[in-house]
Amino acid sequence: MRILVVTQMWPAPAAPQLGVFVERQVRALRALGATVDVVTIPPAAGGVRAPLKWVRLIRRARRAARVAAPDVVLGHFLFPAGEAARQAARAVGVPYVVTCHGQDVTNAERSKLLARLTERVLADAWALVAVSGDLRDRLFSVVKALNNVELVNMGVDVHVFRPGDRDVCRHAVNAPTGGPLIVQVGAKNLAVLADAVAILRARRPGATLWVVGGADAGPGPGGCRLLGRLTPEAVARYLRAADGAAFVSLREGYGLGALEAAACGTPVVVSRGLPVAADLAPGATVLVDPSDATAVAMALDVALGLERDQPDALAAVQQQSVEVMARRTLALLERCIAEHTARPLP
To answer: Of 167, 280, 281, 339, which is most buried with the most CB atoms under 10 A?
Structure first.
């Protein structure tokens, strides 16, 4: 099978975490025997509001399709990547599938123009892949429903995010020794989380909060430490070094950061209602209302008392690995190709 992947989310030196989950899926699809070509553009200011980026990605995708002669095109992100995938597929007469991730759905919710553009992408797509049911439901509240919808998250890289020698990791990151270290993946809902750690110090003196990911590095709210953009390998070291992990964002397309913490064997506090919560083992996870700092503090205290590296928790993570999700994606694309003659593009 020849697959053309089109995305504006792809790791770059200035943004090593950007689209790393897409890169992992591409590697896994190749390992399963697929030939995968990738079309992307470097990160630049403007996001979805930069029409020149849209045009550049669309042109590159059309050219790549003519050269690579794919059997199917896979777009990651509804717009502009979905539109680029659509035009690339039409240029060579093959079907295409689009995956939505979260921010693309938020964009469609906030912009009537992007909602219309997204609707056009989905109207011609053979299938929509949503990383969670919540994301699918949100999308269908602003655009017409697409009959063929698959739920497949991007999966966690269990080769990078895995248990390891915690003492070595703590030494490597120079972890504090005067109290428990809390690590969150993603700089989200930090005011509440910082307040929660301040409350936690009454029971756990010296409790410290470090945040990996995000554009900034330096001091953050309530004295927390922002570590900025890091490679996945570095993120995994911090998670293994932590006494407990947090993932208390208010909204996520899926919530892969919580799965990464669990894969490292670290007990994690997760916002109740996030899609990822259903895929985590309850014995190593504490669910919480992310808007209540006192509740988050209590949840962190409970998590700090949980056993690390629980077999049930690690087994649950394996079911959400990149390899498992890539096999599901490949099976979907095989069906897409097989059924294309019965449902050609308009």
So the answer is: 280
